[in-house]
Amino acid sequence: LTCVAMALLWLPAILCIPHIHAVWACVRSCPASCVCTRERSCSILCDRAGLQQIPSEFPCEASSINLDKNNIKFVSERAFGTLPSLKSLSLQHNNISFITPGAFKGLPRLTELKMAHNEYIRYLHTRTFTALKRLVKLDLADCNLFNIPDRIFIELPALQELFCFQNNFRRIPGAIRGMENLTHVYLERNKIEAVAYNSLQGLMKLKYLNLQDNRINVIHDRAFQDCQKMEYLYLNDNLLSDLPENSFDGLRHLKMLNLGGNFLRNVSNTWFRDLVELEVLYLDRNRINYIEEGALENLTSLVSLHLNSNSLTTLPFSVFQPVFFLGRLYLFRNPWECDCKLEWLKDWMENYRLVRDIPCASPSSVAGIDLADVLFDRSPEGSCLDPMELNVTSYSATPTSELHSTTESKFSSLISKLLLQEGLPEEMANSTEALTNTTQLDRLADEVSSGVGEYAISCSFHLLALITAPAVIVLQSE
Fold first, then answer.
1. What Cα–Cα distance (Å) separates residue 123 from each residue in 94, 168, 291?
2. H/E element, 291
3. Tens digit of pLDDT for each residue in 80-105?
4. Number of other residues whose CB lies within 10 A of the CB of residue 15
5. What secondary structure does DSSP assign to 7-23, as a single string?
6. Which of 6-15, 25-34, 406-415 has the lowest mean pLDDT?
7. Which residues lie below 8 Å from residue 14, measured CB to CB, with a gap of 6+?
């Protein structure tokens, strides 16, 4: 019994020996100017160490190496020797200008390689990443690359995430074609001009594609046909003025589509017909003035629609009806014509309280007023009546009689409103019809006070005297 008890006491210590040895070995072989820790088995931290070149030796047990923010300029062949446990390697923010083919040989378990922000690389050899058969994530962002060889990823069958944003590509790199396991591709802030019919060929598992902030002016028909698992697609801030009829056919799992910041003028009823799982649609910052009926018909999962900063004057209920139970709707910065065609939108805003800031651009009687504050009149039969256009004109070469008539009409309307507000008898005021939205009165007063020529001003004061004289008498008698 005593022997068994002693064995149990020693067992934990015996089991810990390999771990203690590994930690000791990691620290013992740590390169100068670096810090080695037991985090993630054996982490080598050489960032911000002022290194001019890659250290000649690393602990054999190393699982991650960080060489960020040094002054390394060259990566030689087998630069890291043989590190069978290394999974993560970062060389970001250096001054690397050349990578020798086979530089990463001897790293059979490497899954993550970060080389972003090395602005002098510019060129990569076809065999730069040879032997990295387990590489899952590759970051080449902001490396001033103009192109990469079409076969550079031929030995990276496990690659899933590729970061190539902020380079100088004029086309989508042909190297990604046929990469069956790619799920995320980041190509924003390049100089890409088109999405060709075969640019994304064979990307069967692609879920995320970012092409924002490029120079894309054309998308070929069915360019995304192989990307049927796509969930997030960014095409915003490009030069698109039109899209093919079948642009997004097959993207039935797409959840977010961003087309903002382009030059689109209309929304076709064919573009989104397959996007039954789409939740967020950005069409903001375009020049859209027309949405075809049926354009939103199949967007049964839509939660958020961005139509702000366009040229829309109206939004027919028949267009909006398929997405009536939308969660968020953005409509600001459009020249809305607040007539009876938009009364349904005002009611919708009041009922759901999900939209605000929709200032009217016309008619003139409601210009500048938010749609939520517009009061629609009714005919005796109960029909909606459009707000009226005010009879207001700016200075122009007008015959004297016509100018006098226009000025008198404006001023008598103004005075009648002022007198009515003072509670004077209706017969003492001018008989011009009252404005429905009284906030426009100030604007009218400003326009009149600014004048339409010296003659108009003179006539205005005469008219004021004629109209206000009876009012003064009435006030004195009281």
1. 15, 11, 45
2. strand 290-291
3. 999 999 999 999 999 999 999 999 99
4. 9
5. HHHHHHHHHHHHHHHHH
6. 406-415
7. none
Determine the Cα–Cα distance for residues 79 and 96; give it in Å rounded to an integer. Answer: 13
* End-to-end C-alpha distance for the chain, whole angstroms: 120
| CB burial readout 219-255, b (16+ within 10 A) else e | beeebbebbbebbbbbbbbbebeebbebbbbbbebbb
Residue 394 burial (10 A CB sphere; 0-12, 13-18, 19+): exposed
406 in any annotated domain: yes
What does the block give as tokens for 355? Answer: 């939209």
Residue 190 sits at φ, ψ, to 5 deg, of -110, -155
Q: Let me know: does 264 contact 239? Beta carbons within 8 Å.
A: no
Q: Per the domain annotation, does 253 fall within a domain? A: no
> How crowded is residue 12: how many other Cβ atoms within 10 Å of its Cβ?
8
The two tokens of residue 226 are 């192989």
Cβ atoms of 220 and 194 within 8 Å: the answer is: yes
Please provide residue 276's backbone torsions phi and psi, each rounded to the nearest 5 degrees: -75, -15
Cβ contacts of residue 57 below 8 Å, gap of 6+? 29, 31, 81
Phi and psi at residue 346, to the nearest 5°: -60, -45
The whole-model pTM stands at 0.78
In a domain, 454, yes or no: yes
CA–CA gap between residue 399 and residue 264 (Å, rounded):
44
- Report the run of H or E that residue 5 belongs to, with start and end: helix 2-28
* Other residues' Cβ atoms within 10 Å of the Cβ of residue 136: 17
Handedness of CA 43, 49, 54, 56 (dihedral sign): negative
Radius of gyration of the chain (CA): 35
Averaged pLDDT score across all residues of the chain: 82
C-alpha pair distances (Å), 268 with each of 212, 263, 278, 401: 21, 14, 16, 50
Question: How many structural domains are present in the chain?
Answer: 1
Give residue 295's identity as a one-letter amino acid code.
A
Domain extent for 418: 400-477
Helix 440-450 crosses helix 400-421 at what angle (to 10 degrees)? 140
The answer as to whether 434 is a domain residue is: yes
CB 305, CB 282: distance < 8 Å: no
Q: Residue 56's CB: how many other CB atoms inside 10 A? A: 9
From the CB of residue 58, how many other CB atoms can be counted at a distance below 10 Å? Answer: 23
